[in-house]
Amino acid sequence: MPFISKIERQSDYHLFPSTTPIVIDNGASYFRIGWAGEAEPRVIFRNIVQRPRHKATGETVTIVGDHDPALLRYFDCTRSGPRSAFDSNVVYQFEIMEYILDFAFDRLGANGSRIDHPVLITECVCNPVQSRSKMAELLFETYGVPSVAFGVDAAFSYKYNQQLGVCAKDGLALCPGFTTTHVIPFIDGEPVYKGSCRTNIGGYHITDYLKQLLSLKYPQHMARFTWEKVEDLKMEHCYIAQDYFSEVRLFQKGDKEAEDKTRCWQLPWIPPPTEEPPSEEEIARKAAIKERQGQRLREMAEAKRSSRINELENELHGLEFLLQQLEHVEEHNIPSFLSETGYVSKQEIESAVQKVTQSLRKAKGEPKGDQAEAEEKTDPATNERFPLINIPDNMLTPEQLKEKRRQLFLKTTSEGRQRAKQKRFESELERERKNQQDEEKRLENPELYLEQLRAKYKDLSEKVEQRKRLKTNGNHTNGNNFSGGVGRGERLNAAQRERMRLLTTAAFDRGKGEDTFGARDEDWQLYKLMSKDNDDDDEGPDQDEAEMARLSSRLQEIDPTFVPKLEIVTSQPVEVPRLRPLTKEDFQILLGVERFRCPEILFRPNWIAVDQAGLDEMTGVSIRRLSPVGQEVEERLTNSIFITGGSCLFPGMSKRLVAGIRMIRPCGSPIRVVKASDPVLDAWRGAAAYATAPQFLTQTFSRTDYYEKGEDWLRRYQLRYTL
C-alpha cells in the first residue's frame, strides 16, 4: 500500500529483541509509537487518514498524519477529506485504524505484516468492551502480536509524574484532552474508576470556536482560517482568565492594558505601487507630443474650413447666376423654368442666397450684418423660410405637397421651441423677481422672514405629500372602507369631474337609438374640453414642487440647520461612494477577547450548547462519587490535583482551577494544583517506563488467552499500575 508522508522510516527495528515491548499512545489528536525504556517516541503524527486519487494516473494513495500541502496539488481531494478513527475519544472506525497502524509499524521499521513484539496501547477511561475487543482482534488477527496490554493515558502520566515527585499517591488527575476531559481519582497510587467523570469538551472545541469567531469577525479572510493555522493561533495566543467578566470589562474600556493584551496577525500584503510625479523631461516630452497633435488637428480643421468655403462660394455663385437668368425670363415661363432647378419661386432662391451668405460669413469668421441680426430677431414666418405654406394645394405638384407638409411640421416645431424658450425666460425672470422681493423682506426683518419662509415651505410640502398619497391610494373604494383610504370619486377635482360628466352625457343623452356622435361640429368640442392641457390639476403639482424647490434652495442659503424633505433630496443624483484602496491594516487579524473567550468554554461548556459541568465543577463531582471516604482523604485528593493533556498548556490554567475549586470546597480545605512536567508526552513516557518493569508480561493479554477466553475475559481485564 503506497503511503505519502514526510516522516522518515526507522532503520534499527531488527536490533530490538522480540521481548522488547512496543509502546503506543493512541490519542484522538496525535499518534505516538516507540520502544519501551526510551525517553522519546520514535514516530509522532496526527491521527487522521486521507485517501485521494492521483489526477494523472487515477491511483488511490493513503496519506496518514501530517503531509506536505504542496503535494496535494497532484491529487483530487474533493471526494476524500481527512478522517479520524475516533468518535469523541473512543475508537470505532477500525478500517481507518488499520491504515494508521500499518503506517506506524512501517515507519517504526517493521518488515512485513507480522509484529513479534508485545504491544502496550493506551485507551480512554472506561473504554467500551466492544472497542477494546475490536482493537485486540485487529492486533492479534492482522499483525499477529504475541500479547497486548491496555492502559489509560492519564493514569500513565500520573504515575510517571508521581515517580518524579510532582504529585502524591492520593490525588485527582484532571486531563483536558482533544475531544473530552476526564477526572480520575487516585488512592494509594491506583485509579478509582468508579469516581471518574467525563465532559465532552476539549481542545477540538476550542479551536472550532476560535475559527467561528474569527470567520464572523473577518469574513473577507475566511479562506485564511484553516484548521492548522487556527490551531497554531490557539496554542500561541490563548490564555485562561482568572476572572472572565473583569477581563471583559477591561477590553470594553479599551485602555492601554487592553491594547497590550491584543495580539496582531499580519496577513501577506503587497503595498500598491506608488505613482511618482513625472520628471521635467517627461512633462516636456508630453507637452511636445500634445503640441504636435494640436498642430495636426488645426491643419485638418483649416483644410476642412477652406473646402467648406469653396463649396459655399460655388453655391453662392450658382444662385446669383440663377437670379440673373431669372430676370431675362418672361413671367409666364417662370414656373417651367424653375421646375428644372428645383425651386418654386424667386423668393425661395433669394432666401437660399441669404442662408448661403450667412453660412459663408460664419465660415470665414466675419461678423454678421445688421440686416441678418434683425432678421434673426424677427418671427421665423416673416423671413420666407417656409414659402410653400401660403400657396394653395391645387397649385403644387405632389413633390411640393410633401415639401409643404414638411415645412408645416418644421414651422410648428420651431414655434413650439420659441414658446418654450420664452416661457423658460419668463420663469427665470419671475424667479429672480421673487428672490429679489424675498431678499428685501429678509433685510427688513430676518427672523420674521425666516419664520414665514419655513411656514410656507411646510404648507407646500404637506400639500405635495397629500397629493402624492391620494394618487397612490387608488385601490380603495367608497363603501365600507375601514382602512382610512378614499375612493376615486373623492380624489377627483372639479376639472376631472367635469370630464367625467361630459363623457357620461355623450354616451347616454342620445337614447338607445343610432349612435350619431360626431355628425355635428359641436360634438368635437368635447375633446377640447376633456383635454389634459386644460386640467389645472396636472399643472398644479409641477408648480407647487417648483416653488417648493425654490424655497428649499433659499432656506439652505440662509439657514444652515435646514434639512430638505426626502422627496427633494431623492430627485437629485446620488453620489456613488468611492472604494478606498486597501491598506496594511485591512490585512491584520486582531485577537482581543477571543484570546480568553475561547478557552473559557472549558469552564462554561453551555456557551457552545454542551449542558455539562466545567473543569472546576468536575473535581467536586468526582469527590462526591467517592463518598464516603472521609474528610482526610478528600483533603489529600484536593492537595494533589494533577493536570495533564494538551489543553492544560494555556497560561493561567492552574490559578483559575484553584479559584474555581476553592468556591466549591469547604473553607480552609488545602488546594494545590500541579502540572505535568510534559503534559503532551508524559503519557507515552509513563507507559514506556511501565513496560520496562519485569512484571509487565504478567499484566498482558496473550494471543492464547484471546483464543481460549474470548471477549468475556477482556471485559474483566484491568491493568494494575503499581508493580
UniProtKB/TrEMBL annotation:
Cellular localization per UniProt: Nucleus
Pfam families with a match to the protein in the record: Actin
GO CC aspect terms: nucleus
Record SUPFAM superfamilies: Actin-like ATPase domain (SSF53067)
Keyword Lyase listed: no
InterPro entries the UniProt entry points to: Actin, ATPase_NBD
Protein name: Actin-related protein 5
